[in-house]
Amino acid sequence: MAEAHQAVAFQFTITREGIDLQLSHEALRQVYLSGLRSWKKRVVRLKNNVITGVYPASPSSWLFVVIAILATMYTRSDPSMGLIAKIQEHLPASDSLSVQCQTVVSAVLFSTLLWLSLIFTMKLCLKQLLSYHHWMFEQHGNLSNTTKVWVMLVRIFSGRQPQLYSYQGSLPNLPVPTIKDTIKRYLESVRPLMSDSEFKRMTTLAKEFEDSLGSRLQWYLKLKALWASNYVSDWWEEYIYLRGRGPIMVNSNYYGMDFLYVTPTPIQAARAGNTLHAILMYRRKLNKEEIKPSRIPGTFIPLCAAQCERIFNTTRIPGDETGNTYTHTHTHTHTQLNKRSLDCIEKAAFFVSLDEEEQGMMGDDPEASLDRYAKSLLHGKCYDRWFDKSFSVVLYKNGKTGLNAEHSWADAPIVSHMWEYVLATDSFRLGYNEEGHCKGDVNPSLPCPQRLTWDISVECQERVRRSLAVACALADDIDFHVFPFRDFGKGNIKKIRMSPDAFIQAALQLAYYRERGIFCLTYEASMTRLFREGRTETVRSCTSESCAFIKALEHGKPADVCRRLFRTASEKHQLLYRLAMTGAGIDRHLFCLYVVSQYLGVESPFLKKVLSEPWRLSTSQTPFQQAELFDFVNHPDFIICGGGFGPVADDGYGVSYAIVGEKLMCFHISSKHSCPQTDSHRFGTQLRKALLDLLQLMSGDQPEESRSEQNHGPKPQSKKEL
């Protein structure tokens, strides 16, 4: 989406009599309206900054404090204990004011200082309250008295009707774990993956690091944590994303899909119109901060919204050693042709690709069509997506849509939140007429699109061809398999009293073990947005407990033994996930220690070994955040199936999954054709079987009535039924 310039406001010609100036009234009117809109935005921004700055209080509370102080003084009481009199003594130009006016001005100043002090105290109290995370480790429905009091206090200090960024100043900073705890958890995580000799050597390296270099590196991290809002996020963005020298296509970017079963209109132009309209509606709500703050599902605990600031008008700028993400808030004038055209794209709100092919779940082989759909969204033809933009919207010939998102500026939940709003608004609010066209009348005053022109030298064209060849080879090597799993869903898993995420992670471990005969280091993405500027943390899903369960299951141990081990593994997974969310994860701490060691120019065999370990199973759940926007009762087919990403390791799998409603789960599996040990479809088959086997195992642990309900659930469907 290129925001082209319409800059002709007047025309002039030079004659013998002088300059003949011909003003365009319509152009001047547009200039006036543009300036008016700009000032309105500034006023709205100023208003939002004030409201956010004083939250959890409100600007009107200032008037209440002033009136209360003046009313108290009217009763001949001094609530300031002499401070108002002190302020009155030091008022400038006091000679020009009457005694009564001096008293009122002094009282207003005192009231303002008191009001600001109260706001600061409330923010500080709320920050301390939000630093309490023990509630997350307590059993559901069995809260301690401390947590009950905490809930009451948080509700009191949280204020009412918060805006998007209202909680930013009250979120706690990400804590730095102790070296001892991190090393202990790390060794525990790699124990099932190492032989006795390997683990003994790693334990020795860890002990040497803890006793020598570790404390020195830790001191620098603690210093940064005191100074910076987040001791991880800026280094994570720079060294994990921006300093990467490989192609971001496939290796970093990710995609999001359209509705699984429904295409609201088969007309590409109409779908493009509504989709772009919905995106710009979201952008307006974002600029006005009218979007409600995200919270932990089912709670009132707020999450950091800092990543929302860079959804639009953001692009990744390549550099020799490191790239940059730059959010454009204004435009500049440039005299070079390529620079002007490039600026139009880089400063655009987002990018739009109108594809000439059809995609989606269709044809005689719907699963194969989903695989092609995923590959198209992830890399396209390698030259028809602007991978450096914050996100690119892709619209296909048959009306299907999707997006490709760059990863450095934000994580998937931020893009997913916007995409849910866009799809819901497109279908349920804007809608289409009976012919499939957009509703409403055409606006004839809209400017026509302008073609961007380029002057590409022969040398540059040759470099482009070489880069395209590299990109095409990478894209062709990606093996994708996407499938909706409809045999059962979250509802059945909850009936066996187990976490759906822990259940799926166990199924992934079981599928990998059955395929490869070994366990592997597994990455599950968690989030740290309970903290200011928090992003992600790693949950190491392959644990000693999960390995013990899978070995027992595969070696034919009694069902009751396997069920007990499964529940133990599930509880361990939930504990690790909660530790990651509350700042007690392993990998971000070790990563930052490694960065400090590089700045200091010192080598750590322990850290070098840790950061060189490959993630052969990289997993992530696509969250469904705004169920209230969708009506699954009256419109059950309007189901979003999430998105996916490429494999992290050349010999591994990338697995993304979305839990949709109570009866459906969607899986996106990626790997590389060039690796003989991996096959996305084969792994998908193993995953299906693992899910069914685990539910069958745990159903035997339920009362007869619950088993009867599960047995009468939806039957597996054939490809023809799909």
Automatic annotation (TrEMBL):
InterPro entries: Carn_acyl_trans, Carn_acyl_trans_N, CAT-like_dom_sf, Cho/carn_acyl_trans, Cho/carn_acyl_trans_2, CPT_N. Residues 1-47 form the Carnitine O-palmitoyltransferase N-terminal domain. Residues 704-722 have a biased composition (Basic and acidic residues). The chain crosses the membrane at residues 50-74. Residues 174-331, 333-689 form the Choline/carnitine acyltransferase domain. The active site is at H407. Keywords: Acyltransferase, Fatty acid metabolism, Lipid metabolism, Membrane, Transferase, Transmembrane, Transmembrane helix, Transport. Residues 700-722 are annotated as: Disordered. One of its GO terms (molecular function) is carnitine O-palmitoyltransferase activity. Pfam families: Carn_acyltransf, CPT_N. It is found in: Membrane. It is a multi-pass membrane protein. Signal peptide: none annotated. The keyword Lipid metabolism applies. It comes from the Eukaryota. One of its GO terms (cellular component) is membrane. One of its GO terms (biological process) is carnitine metabolic process. It catalyses: 4,8-dimethylnonanoyl-CoA + (R)-carnitine = O-4,8-dimethylnonanoyl-(R)-carnitine + CoA. Pathway: Lipid metabolism; fatty acid beta-oxidation. Belongs to the carnitine/choline acetyltransferase family. This is Carnitine O-palmitoyltransferase. It comes from Electrophorus electricus.
